[in-house]
Amino acid sequence: MARAANTQLAVVTGASSGIGLELARNCARAGFDLVIAADDPAIEDAARELRTLGGAVEAVQGDLATTEGVDRLYDALRGRAVDALLANAGHGLGHGFLDQDFDEARHVVDTNVTGTLYLIHKVGRGMRTRGKGRILITGSIAGFMPGSYQAVYNGTKAFIDSFSFALRNELKDSGVTVTCLMPGPTDTDFFERAGMMDTQVGQGKKDDPAMVAKVGFEAMMDGEGDVVAGWKNKLQAAMANVTPSGMLAEQHRKIAEPGSGKH
């Protein structure tokens, strides 16, 4: 991918649809060249669309739950400096933990946590050496509450939310900013992919991914530490801080238990 002089480069993961594609659109409109990645062949369609916004775009298809997939993405940079890393790749898994296929549950952990950390580690070191860069990590308000019938996903987001705040503190004098975007339920293919379309949360009203991405992108560009998208989610996040964990788990059960959307 040819890069014009002085053009900044952004890397966006999970960019084939949903929040990730909207984040990539924000980057393209702001003048960034792009390297985008996802495990979905639709990443090529996303790249073709994003090129119409004016910048150079390279697509990488790979499983970012694996070190091989992350290495493939990193190799696609060909040594170029990354100005903004938007680590958005992630997915969920519904139903009770003991009813889940363990390989599927592990893939959630490896995508949301292990692959995300590996990519940030590789790209973040270069940013720190240069003394400049922006990192946006997509966490979730799900990280504030025990996720009955979504236990693995919520656990990974609790990790990511916490990790984001810690990394920001470690890099506070480095010139590298770390922003954590914490959406609530968003109108993407997340719930269908997680097998949660028969749940209350799967069938309920959701936020517009374009709105969520705009909030996150602007927070990243402003160097903010964390941002919750949507006023209802802000209220829910605030309430989670003062509500006993057992009560939160029961509340989550009501919206995520299989069949809860049929009432």
Automatic annotation (TrEMBL):
SUPFAM superfamilies cross-referenced by the UniProt entry: NAD(P)-binding Rossmann-fold domains
Q: What is this protein called?
A: Short-subunit dehydrogenase
- In its UniProt entry, the species of origin is given as Azospirillum picis
PROSITE patterns attached to this UniProt entry: ADH_SHORT
Top-rank taxon, per record: Bacteria
Cite the entry's keywords alphabetically. Answer: Oxidoreductase
Family note: Belongs to the short-chain dehydrogenases/reductases (SDR) family.
- The reply to whether Protein transport figures as a keyword in the UniProt entry is no
Family matches, as InterPro entries: NAD(P)-bd_dom_sf, Sc_DH/Rdtase_CS, SDR_fam
